[in-house]
Design goal:
The chain is of the alpha/beta class. Helix content is 39%, strand content 11%. The protein has one domain. α2 packs across α3, α3 packs across α5 and α4 runs antiparallel to α5.
Length: 205
Amino acid sequence: MARREAPEINAGSMADIAFLLLIFFLVATTMEVDGGIPRKLPQKQPEGIKPPIIKERNVLEIKLNLNDALLVEGTRRAELSEIKDIAKEFIDNGAGDPEKNLKCDYCKGGPDGVVADDMSVHPSKAVISLKVDRGTSYGANVAVQDQLEQAYTELRNGISMSKYGVSYEALLGMLKVDKENERLQDKIKTIKDLYPVIISEVEPK
């Protein structure tokens, strides 16, 4: 009696289905990406160096408690969306310091150009003190720091537009293309010197 051969199974269609399923999962799957901001960590200071004396009016105190609630200057409750404008008003106040012959001829002041006597005298003297609790969520901390970064970026964009006719962010973009351009480097350094980022992060408790 002749032996019957088993029919071959066509696996071509199965391979196509598996390939289509793989593409579907690659397209449909969402991947979580950790948020963060570029920040250079402060270096350890040599022993024996005394910290500089900073006037109270030149320090903007922002606290973030364990419930992610914001408190500005110890008494004022604030929303996250307000932090950027609060920081800009404080940094760009430009009241000046007659004792040290320090003036800011490029500062815009507060709303409607009003200069307050309880805010920073000059952007180079403005210190933003950020204090968080050990229970503060990472997301809230990053969100506040992002608002502060936006405040400095917008101030730098404004002064760059008035001096060079192009935003600070555009200058950074051009420098990425032409990294050896010394004129671009000088312009960016000038803008950074006009609005230096001075953020003090207090050790959490």
